[in-house]
Amino acid sequence: MLTGKQKRFLRSKAHHLNPIFQVGKGGVNENMIKQISDALEARELMKISVLQNCDEDKNEVAEALKNGAKAELVQIIGNIIVLYKESKENKQLVLPKTN
Hints:
Layout: H1 4-14, E1 21-23, H2 30-43, E2 45-50, H3 58-69, E3 72-77, E4 80-84
Parallel strand pairs: 1-2
Antiparallel strand pairs: 2-4, 3-4
Keywords: RNA-binding
Domain CRM: 1-96
GO molecular function, one term: RNA binding
């Protein structure tokens, strides 16, 4: 679990990122989860946008992606979901220590 301090740090890092994936009419599927998981391994932090035509609620989408990719949900802001997952091979971000 991420602490508030770590989430603030990740939000500041995610601020300048553009969404890489879009969740649309089809909602979340296995293939998308696999791609997002691979992308998280490469970049650790990413934004995903939930399109207007998505049938699922953005909170459900965030939950499905978080659980499917075994990632941490940093925030949902508007229709943008920010996910973080520590990379095994490609570690770039150093989180603030938990006290």
